[in-house]
Design a protein that fits this description.
This protein is of the alpha/beta class. The protein folds into 2 domains: 186 residues, Rossmann fold (3-Layer(aba) Sandwich), CATH 3.40.50.1100; 95 residues, Rossmann fold, CATH 3.40.50. Helices cover 38% and strands 18% of the residues. It contains 10 helices and 10 strands. α1 packs across α5. The chain is globular and about 55 Å long.
């Protein structure tokens, strides 16, 4: 069994505070300082902790990298084998990290009429049907959402002493935004929850297309988003070029080296502050620049 979460130094990540136009204040939750370098340490820990007896099956998951790295760590703690399904859109930096971690992985080809992520998900389902694999299915796994409800959201609430008007969060599997949104709405139903996805992703609608922001986005909403959509008040769709621009902007102005999904989310923040004033805004930053240097630097 896994140790208590505190023993892995998961959580207690810092917040970076910026005063923006219209007297808005931004609080950036810096998950690059989390255990294993991303917010996914929280998700992986709770998913593996609550994993039932899988009778010596190998766990498989579709992941852009961060969740795979974290799952591998905690599954090793439980002596469970792991296969990480990635694709060609993964950054070289994340791929190097996977290789250095000794993670068994499979590079999934894009299948006809499917995008990369949908192709990975299809393979995960196919492997599970063989009876030799167990798919953790981050897209529908309630423990993905509950990890953020139980750990991430209360931490943010405490960081801000409950003084939160808006939370803006990048969206992929939907676990982070769903858990945070459910918790925040229970604390104060007036808090606005805003999701952000790349242009080309269709979690909140729109037209399907390609995008390089591999850690976020999906073809249609996940089960977690469908089940928790009532807690999400709005969304933005940001193109890759703008996401990269704001990664560089954050680095130059604030000396923060954040990942591409953080640049995407900051772009949404910049759009949103044009519409509001005197608000306290929380932004989720899932990881750091070290995973995307070849895209941004």
């Amino acid at each position: 069994m896994l140790k208590d979460i505190e023993e892995y130094n998961i959580g207690n990540t810092p917040m970076f505070v910026i005063k923006l136009k219209n007297n808005n204040w931004l609080y950036i939750k810096l998950e690059k300082f989390n255990f294993l370098g991303s917010i996914k340490a929280r998700t992986a820990y709770y998913m593996v902790k609550n994993l039932c007896d899988i009778k010596h099956k190998c766990v498989v998951e579709s992941t852009s990298g961060n969740l795979g790295i974290a799952l591998n760590y905690f599954l090793k703690e439980r002596d469970i084998k792991f296969l990480c399904l990635i694709d060609e859109s993964i950054s070289d930096d994340k791929l190097d990290k996977i290789k250095k971690s000794g993670i068994k992985y499979r590079m999934v080809k894009k299948q006809e009429n499917l995008d990369f992520r949908s192709s990975r998900i299809k393979l995960a389902k196919d492997l599970e049907r063989t009876g030799f694999y167990h798919w953790t299915n981050q897209y529908d796994n309630e423990y993905n959402m509950l990890a953020n409800f139980k750990y991430t959201a209360p931490e943010i609430w405490e960081n801000c002493n409950g003084n939160i008007d808006i939370c803006i969060c990048p969206v992929g599997s939907g676990g982070t935004i769903s858990g945070i949104a459910k918790y925040m709405k229970e604390k104060n139903e007036n808090i606005k929850i805003i999701g952000v996805e790349p242009v080309g992703s269709t979690i909140f609608g729109g037209v399907e297309g390609d995008y390089i922001n591999a850690g976020t986005g999906l073809r249609g909403p996940s089960g977690l988003i469908k089940n928790n959509r009532c807690f999400i008040d709005g969304y933005y769709q940001i193109d890759d070029k703008e996401s990269i621009h704001y990664c560089k902007e954050i680095m130059e102005q604030y000396q923060l080296e954040l990942g591409i999904s953080s640049g995407m989310t900051f772009a949404a923040v910049m759009k949103h502050v044009e519409k509001v004033s005197n608000k306290h805004i929380v932004m989720i930053s899932p990881d750091g620049l070290e995973n995307y240097k070849e895209l941004i630097v």
